[in-house]
Amino acid sequence: MAAKTPRDDSDPYRYGIYLRPDARTCRAVTVVTDQLRAQYDLRSAGAFPPHATLVGSQPFGHSEPEVVDALSALLAGRPAFDVHNAGVRARGIGYVYEVGLHPDGSVNEDFVRLAADVDRVVAPFRRPMGSPEPNDYDPAQYGPHLSLASHDLYVRPDLHDEVGDFIHELAQPVPDGFRGDTVVLYRTACPDWSGRWWQTMTWEHVRTWKLGVA
């Protein structure tokens, strides 16, 4: 594991702005992450509420009220959109439900535009930070997903294939899509973001917005 990086003056809070799936999909994510913790003590994906990241790890300092106002203005009356769940996929070191593509394999541009617009309106409120690396919107890298197993597998890469087999063997029922109509802001805290933050991170719900509502 890489050496720990120094803390910075934006500690201890980071903010995440997420698209929340429907309740049945949230339940499926939680079942899988709970089972992975019970069997392998994998914690990072389950450390968060089920979500698809729009922007994450955002250091807003004392600007939380201004961020809420900016997001409220952006999202007021914005239409909801359909999200397709293509099922379990390997992504990077871990595993996810793939939710960024249409059934025909084309990119869900509504999802991409939402992330880009959220990133644009919160950008003025960001503070510099050293760790962890920010999860800003990057059009070249952005791929919406629901994490099932993630950062722990950097520490235990030997478990990658076994964990994948276990997830598939669970055969957890999950809807093949949902309406993308719920955006949520969470405040996260950790005593040390530079280490294995998923073992000590806590989170609080701040605000929910329903798309399509004026």
- Mean pLDDT across all amino acids: 90
Total of DSSP H or I helical runs spanning 4+ residues: 5
C-alpha geometry: globular
| Cα-atom radius of gyration | 17 Å
Q: Please give the alpha-carbon distance between the first and last residues.
A: 47 Å
Task: Explain what you see.
The relative contact order is 0.27. The radius of gyration is 17 Å and the shape is globular. The longest helix is centred in the first third of the chain and has 18 residues. The mean pLDDT is about 90. It is of the alpha+beta class. The strands form three sheets. Strands 2-1-8-9 form a four-stranded antiparallel β-sheet, with helices on one face. Strands 4-5-6 form a three-stranded antiparallel β-sheet. A hairpin with a 2-residue loop joins strand 4 and strand 5.
Short key terms for the protein model shown above:
single chain; 214 residues; alpha+beta; four-stranded antiparallel sheet; three-stranded antiparallel sheet; 28% helix; globular
